[in-house]
Specification:
The protein has two domains: 39-79; 85-170, PH-domain like (Roll). 34% of the residues lie in helices and 24% in strands. The chain is extended, with a radius of gyration of 25 Å. The protein contains four helices and seven strands; from the N terminus they run βααββββββαα. It is of the alpha+beta class. α1 packs antiparallel against α2 (62-79). The strands form two sheets. The protein has a four-stranded antiparallel beta sheet with strand order 1-2-3-4, with helices on one face. A three-stranded antiparallel beta sheet has the order 5-6-7, covered by helices on one side. It has helices spanning 39-59, 62-79, 141-151, 162-170, and strands at residues 25-30, 85-90, 94-97, 100-103, 107-115, 118-125, 132-136. The chain starts with 24 loop residues before the first strand and ends with a helix.
């Protein structure tokens, strides 16, 4: 009976050297789009909320009244938020945002939408993960789209997501 071949393995593991990745494009952007609101906006939302509460009370549906009040409170609270800023860096390895690097292999595709004079890039992630989006400065728009097009497929048929459209129309 032949002897089994013994495979020797190294007991020491090699420590990988950190690789410096040169950024291709880096820019500062806001966390989300901010729409200025005046007193009429708050009065209008308040009147809509009041009508909703009165209608649900008249129908005798107290649970729906609570839902309308909670939704109104959430709208007023979200409307007062101010966006912070964060740095977005495109590297050959992927997209670095908020100190977290996402490799290009973590994205399916990308698309862009221009509304209110701002170009927003949306990066679709795999496995139903949330979409990554950021506003691109006007002077860097062409170069950002070129870098992303070299790494990811571009969706021509997609536009601004429904939730962003509602937020923009309600000026939240």
């Amino acid at each position: 009976m032949p002897k089994k071949k013994v495979i020797k393995r190294h007991s020491k593991t090699a420590t990988p050297k950190p690789v410096e990745v040169e950024p291709i494009i880096s820019f500062e952007t806001t966390e989300f789009a901010h729409h200025s609101k005046n007193e009429l906006w708050y009065i209008g939302i308040g009147l809509i909320l009041l009508v909703g509460v009165l209608l649900t009370l008249r129908l005798g549906n107290y649970l729906l009244t609570a839902v309308v009040l909670a939704a109104g409170l959430a709208i007023f609270r979200i409307a007062r938020e101010r966006p912070g800023s964060h740095k977005v860096t495109l590297t050959p390895a992927g997209v670095e945002r908020e100190g977290k690097t996402l490799g290009f292999h973590e994205f399916k595709a990308f698309w862009a939408s221009e509304n209110s004079g701002q170009l927003t890039v949306y990066l679709e992630r795999v496995n139903l993960m949330p979409i990554v989006h950021f506003v691109v400065p006007d002077e860097l728009a062409e170069s950002v789209l070129t870098v992303l097009a070299l790494e990811l497929p571009f969706h021509y048929h997609k536009t601004e997501p429904f939730t962003d459209r509602i937020n923009r129309l309600l000026r939240i």
